[in-house]
Amino acid sequence: MARSFESFHSPATAEPADSADPPPWGAGGSRLSALRSAAARVGTTLDEDTTWAELTREVAGQVGGAVAVLRERGEAGARYEFVIGNPAVLPDARRAAEVSRGTGGNGAVRLASGGSRPALRIPLAAHGHRYGTLVCAREGAPFGPAEEEVAAFLAERAASTIRHAREHDAVSGIVGRLQRALLAEPGRPHPNLDVAIRYLPVGHRALVGGDWCETVRLHFGRTLLVVGDVMGHGLDAAVDMTAYRSALRYIASADLPPHRILRQLDDIASAEPERRPATCLIARVDPVRGLVTLAGAGHLPPAVIDGSGRVSLLPVPVGPPLGTGLGGYEPATYRLDPSQALLLFTDGLVERRGEDIDQSLDRLTGVSFSAATGVQDVLDTVLARLDARHAEDDVAVLAARLHHRS
């Protein structure tokens, strides 16, 4: 409910209304319609500053005069914000803040000052949480009960929005900390292989989703390169991503070929009904022999960039996604030399809504690179040319190149 301030002379006198007088109130139907429209324009976002600005604008439109917000800052830091109208009409901010904290209940409070300037003070509170004070003031006629009721209603709506916004931020902070805990750094490849990895989660708030990259050192100078994509986004996908990643590291320690690693990952995932399916591509790079052995589980094939900067795809037998329990993964082996760069990626890099996947892959193979480009430059180029920062899905991409042997 509103608490009102009224500045007065002794004895009190009323000044005639001026152009700041409130708009006339209509009959019940038109008034209710106008109030609904005003309420719909308060709290349109979860941004606090936007909500306070919407509140003062709508209250000023309903009751006239000057309207402002005093946020909870302590008396010394009291100042009006989001002011609509003539700020000179408003009572002293420090005094208003002091009275706001020193009074309770629903009673009216009068502040003496020069001139006759009626003012309303309305707590901005919701569910026991207080966020500040709405102050309205004007020259002339005092605020009527109907005006107090309207301003209080809009203030309550704004405070409720702020409460939801802060709760949302608190939950987002918890999710962010959980995501950071889930986001483990990939292992280190052997020094005979240059590797670069980038991860771009979709949206502005997400830190990690279901896409991931991994590198695992094997015996005899070989390195396992992996990209995976768990169905879905956000924290749930990140949890399953971590489970797949942990299982991969454990299975890879047995130094199995890529297709047998996929088979074991599929067995583990299919035994857990709550586990989300995932696609995966594994490349075992052998720099000594100049070979790469690939196996895929429902994943897009890798690309290879030759010494002239041209891009082509390496065909990989298509197996079912992990978690289906169908198995049936097969390997494919290709020559790989230091003039070539290998590119593994998730579908968010290339796929676009309404576009055939072959067309999407053609766009990737149409990217040209400078000769002898380093792996970091490879990623910079492909992410920029394919506009990956505006992708509709998470993007994980890995580039690798053998060291030149002297």
What would you say this structure looks like, in words?
The protein is an alpha+beta fold. Helix content is 32%, strand content 24%. The strands form 3 sheets. Strands 7, 8, 9, 10, 13 and 14 form a 6-stranded mixed beta sheet that branches. Strands 1-4-5-2-3 form a 5-stranded antiparallel beta sheet, with helices on both faces. A 5-stranded antiparallel beta sheet has the order 6-16-15-11-12, with helices on one face. Strand 11 (303-305) and strand 12 (311-313) form a beta hairpin. Residues 1-22 and 104-114 have low confidence and may be disordered.
Distance between the termini: 82 Å
- Could you say which overall geometry the principal axes of the C-alpha atoms support? elongated
What structural class do you assign from the helix and strand content? alpha+beta
What oligomeric state is this? single chain
Helix share, percent: 25-40%
The major beta sheet can be summarized as: 6 strands, mixed
Features:
single chain, 406 residues, alpha+beta, six-stranded mixed β-sheet, five-stranded antiparallel β-sheet, 8 helices
What does the secondary structure layout of this molecule look like, with pairings?
Elements: E1 3-6, H1 28-40, H2 48-63, E2 66-71, E3 80-84, H3 93-102, E4 118-126, E5 129-137, H4 145-182, E6 193-200, E7 211-217, E8 223-230, H5 234-252, H6 258-270, E9 278-286, E10 291-297, E11 303-305, E12 311-313, E13 318-319, E14 332-335, E15 341-345, H7 357-365, H8 375-385, E16 395-402
Parallel strand pairs: 10-13
Antiparallel strand pairs: 1-4, 2-3, 2-5, 4-5, 6-16, 7-8, 8-9, 9-10, 10-14, 11-12, 11-15, 15-16
